[in-house]
Known about the structure:
CATH superfamily of the largest domain: 2-enoyl-CoA Hydratase, Chain A, domain 1
Distance between the termini: 85 Å
Number of strands: 19
Shape: globular
CATH architecture of the largest domain: Alpha-Beta Complex
CATH topology of the largest domain: 2-enoyl-CoA Hydratase, Chain A, domain 1
Largest sheet: 6 strands, antiparallel
Number of domains: 3
Strand content: 15-25%
Amino acid sequence: MFSFLHHQALRLIGLTLVLSGSLLQTAAADATATKSLPLQELRLFTEIFAKIQNDYVEKIDDKALIKHAVEGMLSGLDPHSAYLDKRSFKNLQVDTEGKFGGLGVEITLQNGYIRVVTPIDDTPAFKAGIKAGDVITRIDGTLVKNMSLSDAMEKMRGEPGTRIKLQIARENTSKPLDFTITRAIIKITSVKSRSLEPGFGYVRITQFQTATGGNLLKAIRKLKKNNNGQLKGLVLDLRNNPGGILKAAIEVSDAFLSKGEIVSTHGRNKDSDSVFKAKPNDVLAGAAMVVLVNSGSASASEIVAGALQDQHRAVIMGTKTFGKGSVQSIIPLGNGAAVKLTTARYYTPSGRSIQAQGIVPDIVVNDLKLGKSNTNTANAVHEVDLKGHLQNNSTPPKERKRPVAKSTRTDFQLREALNLLKGIAILKQ
């Protein structure tokens, strides 16, 4: 029995080294690698492996068992480390380009449950009413407790036009909620922009992708052109932005900074340590900024918010962010798959770790939906309405009528951001 287990252990050691991308060139290197491996634990692993091979109720392919073991090893580290098979690796590469098939929802693994970080704007999940913080309990009737993140993502992808059923557990809701959603090709427009009022612009970044930095600069140039070549203030909306590519977050931050640190990363290995700094020329030339964030703002969004907050470049407004402050490196493997491994933590310019802390806004503003009852001032009473009020014989100033964006009539946080920008602009004048 021992010789069999010893043989299995050596075989699995070899498999482990191949899976990690390591190729041992000499016998000396082989001996060094073997010494560093926990042989006692590997013997336990091979013993369990053999028991499953011999006694499990159904025959299981050896490759499938190894895959399950690798997936479990990585998922046990943290919610973001994962094994990506060929298909999942390809899907990840497609995601960063901003076009893929599915529901349009960003998910994470939390205590064995699949939790929604945020639905992405204008996608089937967003339109169906999926919300940040929702817990997915079933996918097409299948319980997802302890399902790997990659398997859950794979189940939610599919051909455009096909339907999927999700069962959702939502906070403050006594019964599970059922959703039937039709899959679609998800084309994410990562940067959207418009004028709120003359001189005041609005830019929303839905996700950080390869082209986000360049698209942001184009959007701001267009806003300037539509506002006589200058902006008095800008709202940067990062609410429900799940993150994305680090490089894009650095480019976005750099666009509004002229100097200083943007973000640093620190890990166990020196190769993971990096410091990224801003280059000269603020695209807004110092114009006032408000950055909107909420609990759906994660990762790259938190890097931007943290950099602009620590550099005193923008006022951060909204609610506390998600708190994902870890760096995942994608390590391709020889079999066409890859490992997504957490290798470092993010730190803001002041040295704050975002991890499990998030970014606390300078001004906390909860998400309220404004309706007619909130904005109706027709019945308000003023001095002029009071009987016997003193007269004012001077000519009253003319009220300046400004076009107001429809979105600010119902979006309380955006309205507050615009009001703050206008106040800053008045003080500067």
